[in-house]
Amino acid sequence: MMKQIVILGSTGSIGTSSLDVIARLGDNYKVLALSANNNTELFLKQIHTFKPKFAAVLNPASYEKIKDQIPPCTRLLPPEIDSLCFMASLPTANLVISGVVGAIGFQPLVAAIKAGKTIALANKEPMVMAGKTIMKECDRWEAAILPVDSEPSAIFQCLAGMADEYTYPKISNHISKVFLTASGGPFAKRKGSLSTVTPGEALNHPRWRMGKKITIDSATLMNKGFESIEIMNLFNLPEEKVQIVIHPQSIVHSAVEFHDGAILAQMGEPDMRVPIQYAITYPQRKPSPVQKLNLFQAAKLEFFEPDLTRFPCLDLALAAARNGGVLPAVLSATDEIAVDAFLKEEIKFTDIPKLIYTVLKAAPQRSGIATLNQALEADAWAREAALACLKEKTYKKAFI
Ligand code: MG
Q1: What is the pLDDT of residue 198?
Q2: Which of 23, 27, 187, 293 is packed most tightly, with the most Cβ within 10 A?
Q3: Which sequence spans correspond to the domains of the chain?
Q4: Does the domain made of 3-148 have the CATH classification 3.40.50.720?
């Protein structure tokens, strides 16, 4: 069957890898629509190569730059979020790949779910903000989320081929533990204070080449906190069934322990094209040009417990998940502001958890599950609160 594919965030790390995978898969996989934001040069190249029916950029300046260079086979949509929602719910789309960064992916994801689409999801922030509600909406509209991020995909792959009673949300009854692996980021082995870390050092990830936001999140371990929340929501797991494991070699991409004591792990060289391709060809597997793992070369695999004192962002994420309500949404939004401020050298690396802690503490405490609207409102509130906190430097008082 021909698969018509929409890619949101086509010029980012997930988007470019997705197009690379699609180009190699042959005629049965076609690009239906593409969206990007600022990288207009690459976006135009992609449009001319893949000839999608629809294209959109969110940034109005980008729109002005490219609007006269679009081939006649492609319709350029207005630079607004509705265009992304429109593309994510196109009746002819068989798969929507969401590789955008941050809460901007929330509304297009909801649009895709309400249209009953299958979504290959790399954009983890919406799953952090309101993952439980999103999974309920998937059930309601018969939509499906296939995780693309390497670790949630690894867990998903370990669960493949199981009988129906093992699918969401019942699968959690059969899992005794999930081992969520983390490379540990660039500072896993660094001694001394992390307060003098520069953006350049934090962007130098030892294993994965990714976008800036997720690379900083990997350095603070916030990324692992987000992934913990994401998999708790995706696979209906309580916190005590998620064991975070620092695994510097990034060969085991995660593992599942079942009630009988059997552990299934998904392994391989770190290459995002594997989980991306699995989501695109699911439930099939197809040949891929990625480097195959040489077990004799890999030889030694190490596993450590995470240090929550040194990497307080992970602790903050788990606490937000435990408290529930809108706190995960506040966590995610504040992290976006904090990472941006760190990249602009307005705050120190160690100020990132301080800012997040300060805003989380001021947030409306509500237990239970946030609705989609509550999550979006909390996101907007947190951004304002975080910017005010940055301006007034109140985060400096946080003891964390
Ligand atoms: Mg990951």
Answers
A1: 95
A2: 187
A3: 3-148, 169-269+302-397
A4: yes
